[in-house]
């Protein structure tokens, strides 16, 4: 299927990749090279006034929508999640991606706490909540579930913000 899509013969593909597993591994590396927390969320030079909007907008950038490239990345990520149930190599890679986002949310929320936008207690739980919500919203959009994902993400963000920092 890949050979046909790129206009090559199957033997030509295997000239460059000795096994199907190597091909899949290279596809994984290529597709997810830019899929990390800091590519979606602004983490430098935040102030209290822009913290909530930065968190909200970063989450929206992660969700599939008008950006077909992001949609494709998330579709492939879902396929690798399924593959990771059987293959330890992909499970480790998926877990590494998950930890990057959990650590990213944690660091961002710690910065928000320093700014006074987020209460400093239970930061790890708040980071996990945001990671789980964005992951499930993205999956719901891919499955064409009719929900107001922007509204749900806004509520998730507001749930971790101090009252005076909430998005109105």
Fold and architecture overview:
The protein is mostly helical. It folds into 2 domains: 1-31, no CATH class; 34-165, Tetracycline Repressor, domain 2 (Orthogonal Bundle), CATH 1.10.357. Helix content is 69%, strand content 0%. It has 8 helices and no strands. It has helices spanning 2-6, 10-16, 20-31, 48-62, 68-84, 88-115, 123-142, 149-160. The mean pLDDT is 85.
Any chance you could write out the topology, listing elements then pairs?
Elements: H1 2-6, H2 10-16, H3 20-31, H4 48-62, H5 68-84, H6 88-115, H7 123-142, H8 149-160
Relevant terms:
single chain, 168 residues, mainly alpha, Tetracycline Repressor, domain 2, 69% helix, elongated
Q: What's the number of domains?
A: 2
**What is the end-to-end distance?**
48 Å
CATH class assignment of the largest domain: Mainly Alpha
Which stretches are low in confidence, meaning pLDDT under 50 for 5 or more residues running? none
How many helices? 8
Beta content comes to under 5%
Task: Give a nutshell description of this structure.
The protein is mostly helical and 168 residues long. It has eight helices and no strands. The longest helix is centred in the middle third of the chain and has 28 residues, at 88-115.
